[in-house]
Amino acid sequence: MTPMIKVNNLHKKFGDVEVLKGIDFEVNKGDVIAVIGSSGSGKSTLLRCLIDLETADVGDIVIEGQYLMKNGTYGAPAEVRKIIGKMGMVFQHFNLFPHLNVRDNLELAPKMVKKSKKMQLLKRVEEQLKEVGLADKIDCMPSTLSGGEKQRVAIARALMMDPDILLFDEPTSALDPELTGEVLNVIQKLANNKMTMMVVTHEMAFARKVANKVLFMSDGVILEEGLPEKIFENPQNNRTKEFLCNYMQD
Amino acid sequence: MNVNYFLNVLIPMLKGGIITLTVFTATIGLSIPLGFVVTLMVMGKVKPLKAVAEFYIYVLRGTPLLLQLMFVYYGLPILPVIGQYFVFDRLTAACIAFVLNYAAYFAEIFRGGLLSIDKGQYEATKVLGLNRFQTMIKVVIPQMIRVSLPSVSNETITLVKDTALITVIGVTEILHYAKTAVNRDANNFAFLVAAMLYLLINFVLTVVFKKLEKSYDF
Ligand SMILES: Nc1ncnc2c1ncn2[C@@H]1O[C@H](COP(=O)(O)OP(=O)(O)OP(=O)(O)O)[C@@H](O)[C@H]1O
Ligand SMILES: [Mg+2]
Fold first, then answer.
1. Tens digit of each residue's pLDDT (9 = 90 or more) over A46-69
2. In whole angstroms, what separates CA B92 from the centre of its chain?
3. pLDDT, tens only, B178-217
4. Contact call for residues B181 and B9 (beta carbons, < 8 A)
5. Quick check: B129 and A95 CB within 8 A?
6. pTM assigned to the model
7. Residue A99: its chain B contacts at CB < 8 A?
8. Could you tell me which chain B residue has the CA closest to the CA of A156?
9. Residue B80 carries which DSSP code?
10. What is the C-alpha separation between B192 and B190, in angstroms, rounded?
11. Phi/psi of residue A66, each to 5°?
12. What is the arrangement of strands in the sheet containing A165-169, beginning at the earlier edge strand?
């Protein structure tokens, strides 16, 4: 079976600073990959390269068998757009459209990009909001929602485009601790439904429970990867041990 | 002071009011879109366009509106060779000068509005598959309008008052009739009436912009 994501020898520089220094990994259908590592290790940059929010310099990125980047070169813009259309992304700061209510936030992209019909769309919006437990918020403006609700709307919005892969960049880092649970539960539910996901997170307990594979990044490389039990209980690398030690103390 | 004298002063001045409103409407209607185009040129990646737009803003904001007004009406027609193509009647010349001048100010206001939009908004539209045009229309412009509205409102009120300048190229707007009546009757009353007319226009504008700001408060 072709992997959902395959990355070979990925390098990325910002100016003279190399932030990704040769990354290789694969994501298979239904995988939930947790990406952990200290601040500045390149986790966000990696995720953003996968969906073309950053332009990488060297290597291959293959999404469902199609090259987003091959040997450091990208395809035509239309091709790139088609490939990244298979993925959705959820951001740390939600990035909801503040001038649109919840319904319009969810409808905008399907309406514009897929030209979906109005009636079907409303039904879909209602279903999707029910999925994330926010059916009653359909007419609310984003500014009236709590952080946890905003993030759940953002997840629903991403799901409206039927992505095959969902990328999460620290989806709970901007939330008050008591609100992280409701967002993590939604992600857990998606995992149960076999959604393919990559989640950059500092929630170790969550990573351990939900992920079937953990990538530990340090200084632009994947230093260690494997099953959650292996990474969390029996890390091989000293830096992994150190990182986890610091986390367990918090 | 009797009602007859009041009407005597007011009625010609209302004719002037129509001219004032014509210049005002033409300026608002044309300088806002033109200003937005200039903003896009300044913010865009095409270097020569950016340079042209920046120079335009620099010159139009850096010289007096009165000078620009006189240049369009008196100056352009006497340019060598091409001057013959730039002969305008007074009202048209006034509108051209005002549109060009106000576009430069609106361009700067809109640029501020665009800069205030979080880059996360562009990232969200990109990962959702919206193209640049859709992003502009559905996400960027509405947010830009909200941020720009108070400054646009301010600029609009300034414009109403600036229209009085066109009296110097002989356009018969409100102030022109006021001046005529004051000179004729040696009586300040007409200035008072003119002031009331400007205040009335600005009162309406203030109410309209309050409403607009409310509808863009999200
Ligand atoms: N647009 C940019 N321009 C320049 N440097 C950048 C840019 N984005 C990220 N960097 C740098 O790249 C490095 C990796 O950043 P990245 O955001 O990928 O780290 P991260 O692992 O996600 O960290 P965190 O846990 O703090 O989110 C950092 O040193 C950062 O300063
Ligand atoms: Mg990050």
1. 999 999 999 999 999 999 999 999
2. 14
3. 999 999 999 999 999 999 999 999 999 999 999 999 999 8
4. yes
5. no
6. 0.92
7. 139, 142-143, 146, 216, 218
8. B128
9. T
10. 5
11. -110, 135
12. A87-90, A165-169, A196-200, A32-37, A213-218, A221-226
The Cα–Cα gap between B213 and B148 comes to: 10
User: Side chain identity at A13, as an amino acid letter?
Assistant: K
Low-confidence ranges of chain A (pLDDT < 70): 249-250
Residue A202 CA, closest ligand 1 atom number? 25
**Are the CB atoms for A200 and A48 separated by under 8 Å?**
no
Six-digit token string for A39: 């601040």
A207 exposure class (CB count in 10 Å sphere: 0-12, 13-18, 19+): buried
Radius of gyration of chain B (CA): 21
- Residues of chain B in contact with residue A112, where contact means CB-CB under 8 angstroms, are 129-130, 134, 138
Q: Kindly provide the ipTM of the predicted complex, given to two decimals.
A: 0.95
Atom 6, ligand 1: residue with shortest CA distance: A14
The domain of B85 spans 3-215
* Position in ligand 1 atom list of the atom nearest CA A48: 18
CB contact under 8 A, A85 and B138: no
* CATH number, domain with residue B115: 1.10.3720.10
Residues with CB under 6 A from ligand 1: A 14, 19, 37, 39-45
Partner-chain contact A108 B130, CB within 8 Å: yes
Size of interface A-B (CB pairs under 8 A): 63
Amino acid code (one letter) for A127: E
Contact B129 A51 (CB under 8 A): no
Is B132 touching A (CB cutoff 8 A)? no
CA distances A183 to A27, A52, A239, B124, Å, are 23, 25, 29, 19
Count of domains observed in chain B: 1
For B33, the token pair is 């879109």
Which residues have beta carbons under 5 A from ligand 2 (an ion)? A 44
DSSP line for B119-162? HHHHHHHHHHT--HHHHIIIIIHHHHHHHHHHHHHHHHHHHHHH
Measured between alpha carbons, how far is B16 from B134 in angstroms, rounded to an integer?
43
Task: Give the pLDDT confidence of B70-104 residue by residue, as tens digits.
Answer: 999 999 999 999 999 999 999 999 999 999 999 99
Tokens for A85, please give them. Answer: 């259309």
In the stretch 144-183 of chain B, residues with CB closer than 8 A to chain A read 146
